[in-house]
Amino acid sequence: MSVLDIRILGDPILRRECDPVEEVDRELRALIRDMRDTMYAADGVGLAAPQVGVPLRVFVYDVRDDEQPSGALVNPRIESRSGSSKGEEGCLSIPGLADVVERSESIVITGLDAEGERVRIEAGGMLSRCLQHEVDHLNGVLFLDHLSPLKRKLLLDKWAKREEGGEVGAGRS
Ligand code: ZN
Fold first, then answer.
1. Was domain 12-165 assigned CATH 3.90.45.10?
2. Which of 1, 11, 146, 168 is most buried, most CB within 10 Å of its CB?
Protein backbone atom coordinates (compact mmCIF):
# COMPACT_ATOMS: atom_id res chain seq x y z
CA MET A 1 0.00 0.00 0.00
CA SER A 2 1.26 3.46 -0.90
CA VAL A 3 -0.15 6.63 0.49
CA LEU A 4 0.74 9.60 -1.71
CA ASP A 5 1.21 13.21 -0.68
CA ILE A 6 -1.93 15.26 -1.22
CA ARG A 7 -1.37 18.61 -2.95
CA ILE A 8 -2.77 21.56 -1.06
CA LEU A 9 -4.49 24.78 -2.21
CA GLY A 10 -1.85 27.05 -3.75
CA ASP A 11 -0.22 24.22 -5.70
CA PRO A 12 -0.62 25.17 -9.39
CA ILE A 13 -1.42 21.57 -10.44
CA LEU A 14 -4.82 21.97 -8.76
CA ARG A 15 -5.65 24.72 -11.26
CA ARG A 16 -4.73 23.08 -14.54
CA GLU A 17 -6.90 21.27 -17.03
CA CYS A 18 -5.86 17.60 -16.90
CA ASP A 19 -5.01 15.49 -19.94
CA PRO A 20 -7.12 12.53 -21.11
CA VAL A 21 -5.80 9.07 -20.22
CA GLU A 22 -4.67 7.35 -23.42
CA GLU A 23 -4.66 3.79 -22.14
CA VAL A 24 -5.78 2.00 -18.99
CA ASP A 25 -2.57 0.06 -18.46
CA ARG A 26 -0.57 -1.38 -15.54
CA GLU A 27 0.91 1.99 -14.73
CA LEU A 28 -2.51 3.63 -14.52
CA ARG A 29 -3.90 0.76 -12.41
CA ALA A 30 -0.97 1.17 -10.00
CA LEU A 31 -1.75 4.89 -9.75
CA ILE A 32 -5.42 4.09 -9.09
CA ARG A 33 -4.46 1.65 -6.29
CA ASP A 34 -2.25 4.27 -4.66
CA MET A 35 -4.97 6.90 -5.02
CA ARG A 36 -7.48 4.60 -3.30
CA ASP A 37 -5.01 3.93 -0.47
CA THR A 38 -4.49 7.68 -0.16
CA MET A 39 -8.23 8.45 -0.18
CA TYR A 40 -8.97 5.90 2.55
CA ALA A 41 -5.97 6.97 4.64
CA ALA A 42 -7.27 10.54 4.52
CA ASP A 43 -10.85 9.38 5.20
CA GLY A 44 -12.03 11.05 1.98
CA VAL A 45 -14.93 10.10 -0.27
CA GLY A 46 -13.10 10.98 -3.49
CA LEU A 47 -9.66 11.87 -4.78
CA ALA A 48 -8.61 13.12 -8.22
CA ALA A 49 -5.21 12.51 -9.83
CA PRO A 50 -4.13 16.19 -9.80
CA GLN A 51 -4.53 16.09 -6.01
CA VAL A 52 -1.61 13.66 -5.93
CA GLY A 53 0.39 15.59 -8.53
CA VAL A 54 -0.65 13.70 -11.68
CA PRO A 55 -2.39 15.83 -14.34
CA LEU A 56 -4.54 13.03 -15.82
CA ARG A 57 -8.31 12.65 -16.11
CA VAL A 58 -8.89 9.96 -13.49
CA PHE A 59 -10.36 9.92 -9.99
CA VAL A 60 -11.36 7.42 -7.32
CA TYR A 61 -14.53 7.62 -5.26
CA ASP A 62 -16.33 5.81 -2.46
CA VAL A 63 -19.18 7.49 -0.60
CA ARG A 64 -19.27 4.55 1.88
CA ASP A 65 -22.73 3.39 0.88
CA ASP A 66 -23.09 -0.31 0.03
CA GLU A 67 -25.90 0.49 -2.37
CA GLN A 68 -23.79 2.89 -4.42
CA PRO A 69 -20.95 2.08 -6.81
CA SER A 70 -17.38 2.94 -5.87
CA GLY A 71 -14.06 2.62 -7.66
CA ALA A 72 -12.24 4.61 -10.31
CA LEU A 73 -13.47 6.65 -13.24
CA VAL A 74 -11.15 7.36 -16.18
CA ASN A 75 -11.89 10.08 -18.75
CA PRO A 76 -15.27 10.80 -17.14
CA ARG A 77 -17.94 12.75 -18.98
CA ILE A 78 -21.11 14.15 -17.48
CA GLU A 79 -23.74 13.25 -20.07
CA SER A 80 -26.73 14.92 -18.44
CA ARG A 81 -27.76 16.85 -15.36
CA SER A 82 -31.05 17.53 -13.64
CA GLY A 83 -32.35 19.50 -10.70
CA SER A 84 -30.26 21.33 -8.17
CA SER A 85 -29.32 20.65 -4.60
CA LYS A 86 -27.35 22.32 -1.85
CA GLY A 87 -25.02 20.43 0.45
CA GLU A 88 -21.88 20.91 2.48
CA GLU A 89 -18.57 20.06 0.85
CA GLY A 90 -14.97 19.94 1.89
CA CYS A 91 -11.86 19.00 -0.03
CA LEU A 92 -8.77 16.99 0.91
CA SER A 93 -6.70 19.69 -0.80
CA ILE A 94 -8.22 22.44 1.34
CA PRO A 95 -8.23 20.84 4.79
CA GLY A 96 -10.29 22.53 7.45
CA LEU A 97 -12.61 24.46 5.10
CA ALA A 98 -16.14 23.46 4.17
CA ASP A 99 -19.19 25.25 2.86
CA VAL A 100 -22.52 24.73 1.20
CA VAL A 101 -22.26 24.29 -2.58
CA GLU A 102 -25.12 24.21 -5.05
CA ARG A 103 -24.82 21.49 -7.68
CA SER A 104 -26.99 19.41 -9.98
CA GLU A 105 -29.21 17.04 -8.00
CA SER A 106 -28.67 14.08 -10.32
CA ILE A 107 -26.27 13.34 -13.13
CA VAL A 108 -25.52 10.64 -15.64
CA ILE A 109 -21.80 10.13 -16.02
CA THR A 110 -19.83 7.81 -18.29
CA GLY A 111 -16.19 6.79 -18.45
CA LEU A 112 -13.92 3.79 -18.04
CA ASP A 113 -13.30 1.82 -14.87
CA ALA A 114 -9.93 0.53 -13.59
CA GLU A 115 -10.18 -2.43 -15.99
CA GLY A 116 -10.75 -0.16 -18.97
CA GLU A 117 -14.41 -1.21 -19.23
CA ARG A 118 -17.03 1.37 -20.15
CA VAL A 119 -19.28 2.37 -17.29
CA ARG A 120 -22.37 4.53 -17.03
CA ILE A 121 -23.57 5.72 -13.63
CA GLU A 122 -26.86 7.38 -12.80
CA ALA A 123 -26.07 9.21 -9.61
CA GLY A 124 -28.12 11.16 -7.11
CA GLY A 125 -27.56 12.42 -3.60
CA MET A 126 -24.09 12.33 -2.13
CA LEU A 127 -22.66 10.23 -4.97
CA SER A 128 -23.80 12.82 -7.52
CA ARG A 129 -22.20 15.61 -5.45
CA CYS A 130 -18.97 13.65 -5.03
CA LEU A 131 -18.67 12.83 -8.75
CA GLN A 132 -19.30 16.46 -9.77
CA HIS A 133 -16.65 17.61 -7.26
CA GLU A 134 -14.11 15.16 -8.71
CA VAL A 135 -14.86 16.07 -12.35
CA ASP A 136 -14.30 19.70 -11.35
CA HIS A 137 -10.81 18.78 -10.10
CA LEU A 138 -9.91 17.44 -13.57
CA ASN A 139 -10.78 20.89 -14.97
CA GLY A 140 -8.82 22.83 -12.37
CA VAL A 141 -11.98 23.87 -10.53
CA LEU A 142 -12.30 23.81 -6.73
CA PHE A 143 -15.47 23.92 -4.62
CA LEU A 144 -14.51 27.45 -3.58
CA ASP A 145 -15.17 28.59 -7.15
CA HIS A 146 -18.88 27.79 -6.73
CA LEU A 147 -19.28 30.17 -3.78
CA SER A 148 -20.13 33.85 -3.83
CA PRO A 149 -17.09 36.16 -3.85
CA LEU A 150 -17.88 37.22 -0.26
CA LYS A 151 -18.10 33.66 1.06
CA ARG A 152 -14.96 32.70 -0.82
CA LYS A 153 -13.10 35.60 0.74
CA LEU A 154 -14.27 34.65 4.24
CA LEU A 155 -13.07 31.08 3.72
CA LEU A 156 -9.74 32.15 2.25
CA ASP A 157 -9.17 34.48 5.21
CA LYS A 158 -9.84 31.51 7.49
CA TRP A 159 -7.44 29.46 5.39
CA ALA A 160 -4.71 32.10 5.72
CA LYS A 161 -5.15 32.06 9.52
CA ARG A 162 -4.94 28.27 9.53
CA GLU A 163 -1.68 28.43 7.58
CA GLU A 164 -0.24 30.80 10.17
CA GLY A 165 -1.50 28.78 13.11
CA GLY A 166 -0.56 25.39 11.68
CA GLU A 167 -3.97 24.00 12.64
CA VAL A 168 -4.76 20.67 11.03
CA GLY A 169 -8.27 20.10 9.76
CA ALA A 170 -9.97 17.25 7.96
CA GLY A 171 -11.20 17.55 4.39
CA ARG A 172 -13.37 15.23 2.41
CA SER A 173 -12.63 14.88 -1.23
ZN1 ZN B 1 -11.60 18.08 -3.65
1. yes
2. 146
